[in-house]
Specification:
The complex is a heterodimer of chains A (106) and B (535).
Chain A lengths: L17 E6 L2 E6 L4 H7 L6 E2 L6 E2 L12 E4 L2 E5 L10 E3 L1 E2 L2 E2 L5
Parallel strand pairs in A: 1-7, 3-8
Antiparallel strand pairs in A: 1-2, 3-4, 5-6, 5-7, 8-9
Chain B lengths: L1 E8 L3 H12 L4 E4 L28 H15 L2 E3 L2 E7 L3 E6 L2 E12 L3 E3 L12 E3 H10 L7 E5 L3 H12 L3 E7 L8 H8 L5 E3 L1 E7 L6 E6 L12 E3 L3 E4 L3 E3 L2 H6 L3 E4 L4 E4 L12 E3 L9 H18 L5 H18 L24 H6 L4 H7 L13 E4 L9 H5 L5 E2 L9 E2 L10 H5 L5 E9 L2 E8 L10 E5 L5 E11 L8 E8 L8 E4 L7
Helix pairs in contact in B: 1-2, 1-7, 3-4, 4-5, 7-8
The chains are: A mainly beta (106), B alpha/beta (535).
The structure holds flavin-adenine dinucleotide, iron/sulfur cluster (2 copies) and FE2/S2 (inorganic) cluster.
One iron/sulfur cluster (SF4) binds next to α11 of chain B.
């Protein structure tokens, strides 16, 4: 598990409501208001996108909205920086492939 | 267009401090920050700060942040969040992106406190998911309660690398190694010692040569480097890790100042491109100031003082503060800032090698190379009558051997056992003529977790050692575990004979272990039976 249940200094992390969202069509859970990237990290997801030409994987790098490595397609909109975009119930997140969605075989 | 007396860009410690001082002088102040939460780096910093009382030493960074926010609100500072300043024009006009909208604001004075950006290094595979910045690690674990990974290798032995390594362990991650291309540890020895005693090996004169993995990091290869920092073939070592954390320095984010037309200088000791400023942070453009990391990489304590200085100077510039009041108040702040600018790690001493402390004691090479003091160092730094078999009961042992600006240990001991003196970079000394009550306040107040209480006469053949402990689960009285040496090597069984926590200890638990008396000066950490340290 990637979530810190209790921290020796900070105690328990305050969390929003537990909500369901969809990652490449699969249903997942996260806390409303936390960055999308955090909810994905909690679920163990590492690859957020593949680069356009070389098709190289990218994931969280700076976590403060500067590097754009973590961009994904959120509710149909590409290039959303998931590390600074809050999770909302029912969101549809897709791995980005270049500038379009990665095809997923379900 | 909305107008203010002062616009501050950046709501970190520098920007908030500036805004508070200016608003208290009666100015209307707007602060813009690109984040959803104010505070800059402060809320990610969960260790007790160094410095002295006037620098809020021994208070954890995030608590200082809470205080600053309350003070800002009190003073009537308007803080705009999700507000990125995209441009700065003549006549002190700024262009701000707030959400999707672009808005113009105008002020009579501007303070730029945009902080710094993390430097990067490249190596084979550096773009793989799982390679992250140290700031990202701090953000994930300390703001959002999530582990950056399970097994982490840290690159960079400056204070950021050391502090974040410790925080990773506090979050429950395993730190497999600390690597730096430099031949010596760059940050405070006390920070290094904290992680060395948990068993983290230090690889100085090493660098990452490859991040392994196809879709994300599954391992890392490091190699030794020669004097020119070139990897030496055949020296590769491999570690299984899922995360590689980079802490290789910071660069001032000074673009806005450049855009505004300030005179800039390239100063490696200040971290790169920085504005030319006077002692209060005023740039070459009158009424435009810079404060904090943007005008030279330091740390949060000095950023706050610089912020306050620039806030007061801006107030005087517009006549909200008389020149005389300004001079009086700035004089005090200058003294406080100056005391932080002393010692081995002073900004002016960057790159210098010290062979001796101010006291003339040869510095510990072991601390610089491996992160911990070796036995020979102890003889130089820790002299006490009880090393000559004399019985004297419980007493503090201070393993703080570098001239750093810090003195909470002195204030903590109301009995006067510990003396740093007026110069806060002096090494703390123990006055063995005053008897120690064993209250533990010094341990809990020590920002570097460098103080231990030792009683060689605890029981026949056994000594007790009280040490600071900031991991979970908190050990329980009666529990059996392993005593670890300064390098994290197991020494043998240790029994927990006391566990103390108190509000004044501020989340630091004082754990007392019973060990064979021979280990009185070697056992410095405790590992529970089933867990590895920090897990
Ligand atoms: C990863 C990391 C770890 C650190 N660890 C420690 C530590 O343990 N102890 C310590 O003392 N110091 C530490 N430091 C250094 C310390 O954080 C800084 O010295 C201190 O925070 C500097 O304060 P500041 O106000 O200048 O900058 P910051 O705290 O960085 O604040 C600047 C703020 O301005 C915002 N900003 C920047 N550009 C714009 C713009 N154009 N528009 C709007 N907002 C903008 C930023 O997002 C940020 O919120 C660390 C720094 C980093 C990066
Ligand atoms: S334990 Fe208490 S009395 Fe002893 S040195 Fe520390 S602060 Fe002073
Ligand atoms: S021993 Fe004193 S000077 Fe050294 S780190 Fe601890 S509190 Fe600071
Ligand atoms: S991780 Fe860098 S922008 Fe999100």
């Amino acid at each position: 598990m990637n979530r810190i249940s209790e921290h020796p200094i900070l105690g328990e992390t305050e969390k929003g409501q537990l909500v369901t969202f969809f990652m490449d069509g699969k249903s997942m859970e996260g806390y409303a208001g936390e960055p999308i990237a955090v909810a994905l990290k909690a679920a163990g997801l590492m690859v957020h996108r593949y680069t356009h030409k070389a098709h190289e994987p990218r994931g969280i790098f700076c976590a403060i909205g500067r590097c754009t490595d973590c961009v994904m397609i959120v509710d149909g909109v590409p290039n959303i920086r998931t590390c600074i975009t809050p999770l909302v119930a029912g969101m549809r997140i897709q791995t980005q492939d270049g500038v379009t969605a990665l095809e997923v075989n379900e | 267009m909305k107008r203010y007396d002062l616009i501050v860009v950046g709501a970190g410690p520098a920007g908030l401090s500036a805004a508070i001082e200016a608003a208290r002088c009666g100015m209307s102040v707007a602060v813009f920050d690109e984040n959803t939460k104010p505070g800059g780096q402060l809320f990610k910093q969960i260790h007790k700060f160094f410095g002295s009382k006037e620098h809020q030493a021994k208070i954890r960074g995030y608590k200082i942040g809470e205080t600053l926010l309350a003070e800002a609100a009190d003073a009537g500072v308007e803080v705009f969040l999700n507000a990125t300043v995209a441009g700065i024009y003549l006549d002190k006009e700024v262009l701000v992106q707030i959400g999707a909208a672009m808005e113009h604001f105008k002020a009579d004075t501007i303070i730029i406190a945009t902080g710094a950006a993390e430097n990067m290094v490249t190596f084979d595979g550096w773009t793989l998911p799982g390679v992250i910045g140290a700031g990202a690690a701090q953000t994930m674990m300390n703001l959002y309660g999530i582990k950056p990974g399970q097994r982490v290798l840290m690159l960079g032995s400056g204070n950021v690398g050391l502090v974040v390594s410790f925080q990773l362990m506090q979050a429950g991650c395993e730190v497999v190694a600390l690597v730096d291309a430099a031949p010596k540890v760059g940050g405070y020895g006390v920070h290094a010692a904290k992680i060395a005693r948990c068993g983290v090996p230090f690889y100085l004169s090493h660098t990452i040569t490859k991040a392994e993995g196809s879709d994300c990091v599954s391992g890392v290869e490091i190699s030794q480097v020669d004097e020119d920092f070139a990897p030496i073939p055949g020296t590769q070592k491999h570690f299984d890790v899922d995360t590689i954390c980079l802490a290789v320095g910071l660069s001032p984010m000074s673009q806005l100042l450049k855009m505004a037309g300030c005179n800039m200088v390239d100063d490696p000791r200040r971290g790169g491109q920085v504005p030319q400023v006077d002692e209060n942070g005023e740039t070459s453009i009158p009424g435009l100031f810079a404060a904090g990391d943007v005008s030279g990489i330091e740390e949060a304590s000095s950023a706050m003082i610089q912020g306050r200085m620039s806030g007061l100077a801006a107030a005087a510039y517009l006549g909200f503060l008389s020149e005389q009041d300004k001079d009086n108040r700035l004089a005090d702040l200058e003294i406080a800032l100056d005391s932080l600018h002393q010692g081995m790690f002073a900004p002016g001493n960057k790159g210098k090698t010290f062979t001796k402390t101010d006291e003339g004691i040869a510095v510990s090479q072991s601390l610089l190379k491996k992160g911990y003091l070796d036995d020979a160092d102890l003889e130089r730094f820790i002299h006490r009558s009880d090393q000559t078999d004399e019985k004297s009961g419980i007493h503090p042992v201070i393993e703080c051997t570098q001239n750093i600006p810090c003195n909470p240990c002195q204030d903590a001991c109301t009995r006067g056992c510990i003396k740093v003196g007026k110069t806060i970079t002096a090494l703390p000394r123990i006055d063995a003529t005053i008897s120690c009550t064993g209250c533990g306040m010094c341990i809990a107040s020590c920002s570097g977790q460098a103080i231990f209480l030792v009683d060689e006469d605890y029981a026949p053949g056994y000594a007790s050692i009280t040490l600071p402990y900031e991991f979970l689960p908190r050990p329980q009285k009666g529990e059996l575990g392993t005593a670890l040496s300064r390098s994290g090597q197991p020494l043998g069984h240790a029994e927990i004979i006391d566990v103390r926590s108190a509000k004044t200890f501020d989340q630091t638990t004082l754990v007392t272990i019973k060990v064979p008396v021979e280990q009185a000066m070697t056992a410095r950490f405790y590992q529970p039976e089933t867990n590895a340290a920090g897990q």
